[in-house]
């Protein structure tokens, strides 16, 4: 048989496509890349309380959390930018651009415009103390986004940054769980929330919850996309810690945002045909079991905040508790927005705006000491701060990133074993969950910077590259950038040192120490109105002390009173300067009115007229401010108008029925007028509200003719 001339087709082995070799990083690039990791690792952990160290009994800063995180953000970002700029200017290279760059510039431009026309430019630039989300922070966010885009040009680098976040987040979560079980190596003062509620390195459960919303999907994404079984178990263990901490923070907005993030990641894992291993199933069961134990344990708690079921049910109870006050704050923010709908009042100025818009119902529920410095709703926070157009620009940025990166984050892989892109899906889920959380929570720089890092991770795969040649003057420009960054870094250190001095002014053992530290804080940072006010407050405290000395029997008070009057004049001059610097800050009107009332009582009753004048100015700032009404009543009584004083005290009590000082004074005025029954009613109500109020038993006895019951 003749052989066929056709040969059977043979499979010819194909050469695998080899990815082009990436050029090695220069030293400057490596510094910038390491700085990004330092940023992601250090900021969540940063705080000023290091009392776990031997011999350290007090924190290093008065604001133990946000200012330290902001300090690190700004400092490390400066280093990263300087290193990247040095590389481009000296060596040239590739600049990566994304499709939202111009939108980001538009957002920054609008925020800058709002800052220029804000009600207080320094606050709008730097942000309100303990929040710090002013213009500088938004510029910092954009810079971090830009730098991250330059380096996140491959999945391996996205995963590397995710690992760094996981390492930091695991430590944050561990500390939060330790607080829940009652193990805390740090010394804290009186906490403004429930004992054993996790707050970790964020100082507040709500702020911790926001960070955990970002961490949860990243930790789970690392676990499900990891091929090494040992690392897979490690990531699952970290995810377990994050879930437990997420639960025991007892923050409803974070529960909602975290649930959204995990559902989104679950959808992505399903689309990518992620196969669960025995490790996954085992750890998932362990997470569910431990979470069930913690939730079950919480159901026995008497405190509704620490009871998961009561906490969940309260989400739908809009007429009581924090849900009610949130709606009242939202209403105030919207009414403020309607007054300045285009440019708003300026970034992060809500604390200055809120007293003029808060309803009396808010004071009745939250109390006279509560001042909202954040709306707890990012939509309304932005509309009140930078106007409706500014809010639309920023949320337009979020939406654009979500749409443009959707395909990258949710595309099906070519093979069932390739789920490397799941880490990109995790960042998409983290960003989505965090934005949902912001509808009910607070945006603070210590967490929100990670939202911008996540957006960079999502947009970087589609970035286009532009080759840049080093200019002839590049070396000189690089040195100039380095000098500018060094100067800014020094300013950043001074910013932190000023807060250390402010802490000393609050803790100083003597008036001289307090005064020196307060004045030092103002010299170092004259843009912080709280530092300025502290100087006047310390002078007032010295003035009060001298008045008390003058009242001691057996000595001539003349010299002491003369010295007291000098301190009084210095105190009021300082407080007037502070009010001129920040006219909308309500507390300063309380401080100066109190100083004049003290002078009316201890120096000359003519000062009561000045006290009444400042009180009326304070009432213009906050119509429903019980504190300023009380001070106004003291001034009116000092001027001889006891009837008007009683009316103001009644108004203060109506605004905050739990505020005892107006009740005590009203009772004293009733007693002076001979109405012992009305006086007794007020005094007994004070004892009911605050049994340990100094001298209350004696006051009751003076108008009732009977001794206080034993043991009262």
Q: Would you write up a description of this structure?
A:
The protein is mostly helical and 712 residues long. The protein has 2 domains: 92-468, no CATH class; 488-704, Alpha Horseshoe (Serine Threonine Protein Phosphatase 5, Tetratricopeptide repeat), CATH 1.25.40.10. 68% of the residues lie in helices and 1% in strands. It is built from 28 helices and 2 strands. The chain has helices at 27-45, 66-91, 101-116, 121-126, 135-151, 155-180, 205-225, 229-248, 252-271, 278-298, 308-314, 321-339, 350-353, 360-366, 378-410, 422-438, 445-459, 474-507, 511-524, 529-550, 558-581, 586-602, 607-621, 626-638, 642-655, 660-672, 676-689, 696-704; strands at 93-97, 464-468. Strands 1-2 form a two-stranded antiparallel ribbon. Helix 2 (66-91) packs across helix 5, helix 23 (607-621) runs antiparallel to helix 24 (626-638) and helix 27 (676-689) packs antiparallel against helix 28. The longest helix is centred in the C-terminal third of the chain and has 34 residues, at 474-507. The chain is globular. The termini are far apart. Mean pLDDT is 92; it is low at 1-19.
